[in-house]
Amino acid sequence: xxxxxxxxxxxxxxxxxxxxxxxxxxxxxxxxxxxxxxxxxxxxxxxxxxxxxxxxxxxxxxxxxxxxxxxxxxxxxxxxxxxxxxxxxxxxxxxxxxxxxxxxxxxxxxxxxxxxxxxxxxxxxxxxxxxxxxxxxxxxxxxxxxxxxxxxxxxxxxxxxxxxxxxxxxxxxxxxxxxxxxxxxxxxxxxxxxxxxxxxxxxxxxxxxxxxxxxxxxxxxxxxxxxxxxxxxxxxxxxxxxxxxxxxxxxxxxxxxxx
Amino acid sequence: xxxxxxxxxxxxxxxxxxxxxxxxxxxxxxxxxxxxxxxxxxxxxxxxxxxxxxxxxxxxxxxxxxxxxxxxxxxxxxxxxxxxxxxxxxxxxxxxxxxxxxxxxxxxxxxxxxxxxxxxxxxxxxxxxxxxxxxxxxxxxxxxxxxxxxxxxxxxxxxxxxxxxxxxxxxxxxxxxxxxxxxxxxxxxxxxxxxxxxxxxxxxxxxxxxxxxxxxxxxxxxxxxxxxxxxxxxxxxxxxxxxxxxxxxxxxxxxxxxxxx
Lengths: 259, 261
Ligand SMILES: Nc1ncnc2c1ncn2[C@@H]1O[C@H](COP(=O)(O)OP(=O)(O)OP(=O)(O)O)[C@@H](O)[C@H]1O
Ligand SMILES: [Mg+2]
Prior knowledge:
The complex is a heterodimer of chains A (259) and B (261).
Chain A: H1 11-36, H2 48-60, H3 63-95, H4 97-110, H5 119-126, H6 130-154, H7 158-166, H8 171-209, H9 214-223, H10 227-255
Helix pairs in contact in A: 2-10, 3-4, 3-6, 3-8, 3-9, 5-6, 6-8, 7-8, 8-9, 8-10, 9-10
Chain B: E1 6-17, E2 20-32, E3 37-41, H1 48-56, E4 63-68, E5 71-72, E6 80-83, H2 95-105, H3 110-123, H4 139-152, E7 157-161, H5 169-186, E8 189-193, H6 197-203, E9 206-210, E10 217-222, H7 231-236, H8 238-255
Helix pairs in contact in B: 2-3, 2-4, 3-4, 6-8
Bound molecules: adenosine-5'-triphosphate and magnesium ion.
The site of adenosine-5'-triphosphate (ATP) has 14 residues of chain B, from strand 1, strand 2 and helix 1.
């Protein structure tokens, strides 16, 4: 995944985006034609226009806004918790021998575990409420943040640390004045990788456990054989993911204007 | 003034990474009296940067001692300022931010440190670039920022690792003369690494020639030229030419050992 991509600003980028939108438009038009002609079963794939109308209605009556808010809140609270712990553990295990001895194996083993597999366990432990969802999001997002922060912090150019030391930077100041700014690109990359993971976990948990949220109303659509609702919810989650990703890129662009 | 006197005794440095041991410095002893301008020349890879980093306190000696004013050094300190071969600028700080860093650490008030930094930025011919980030600068400009950054916080010992390597001839000559001015005005001890024999002889009072890897002091040569003269006159003088040839000859024996057989 390319997370360091700057915002598409120059002309050739704009043309590329235009080109990729053409292909998207063709697919969408085909979708509409095929479904209007009745070539596929309505329940299987309803016409795009029906879905857009439903999306519009569900936005107006507040359904998508309310459930979207629930989903985003769980995902972001979990992500923030993961960032706090991930940055802490990542920096520590890069700079401290004992912390590295303790955390490195845990990170290596924990990183590839599909956290989704823990959903049933979490239902046992924490029930179906917000807490269970937020904790699982935090755990799932912790690994990519911790691993990226650790690598970035470990790879800070030694000469930079030396220059700071010779100009009178104490060990304690070193972290704030050199190590954190020098590894900021890696830290933000970790957060960018964790963002979609936070949405996936929230979404899946909501589908399984309910309690509101976009995952919940999507599965409700399935259970009441209302495929239009399923697809309308899907559009909402896609839009949310897109907006959050762009927002993070914007933040990256602002903070890392020096790279 | 008895400050900035460097004493290196029986210094040895062995790099250890895994099973591999590389001896970089072998039994080197050297006195650099307070206020002396000493150049260090030697074949590439002979341990010049290593020697400088040891004196700076970044690396730990394997055996031997390094003392400044009779005090054995303990890690880096603001009494010694390094100009790095590869600049080592803070990429997240602007030119101004880099040059003010040392003064900031020293607790100098904002107005004052900006004024001091500006002085050195102007000296390095970098005015107008104060708000640029290092990535927006050319190699030669970065090198000048690195110089300004180290000069700005006024260390009594300057440790310079090929600081003019990335500059073109006119700029290099300009900065050489600036450096001499500073050295004369504020009496600094300078250890100046270069691979350029002419530069070494033009700038310094004494040149140390190092042997091939693993490096040690081969010899030091006093340079006795009248520095009240202009650059042209110095370069034309017999003393300069003779010393230059002497250093060159000595260095050549190290770089082309087969030639002396
Ligand atoms: N971190 C390191 N680990 C192991 N060996 C090293 C390390 N740094 C340098 N060396 C070795 O030590 C020797 C001296 O290196 P050094 O960088 O001091 O040379 P130098 O004289 O500055 O060369 P140059 O003129 O090319 O800059 C070389 O043989 C090099 O391979
Ligand atoms: Mg070197």
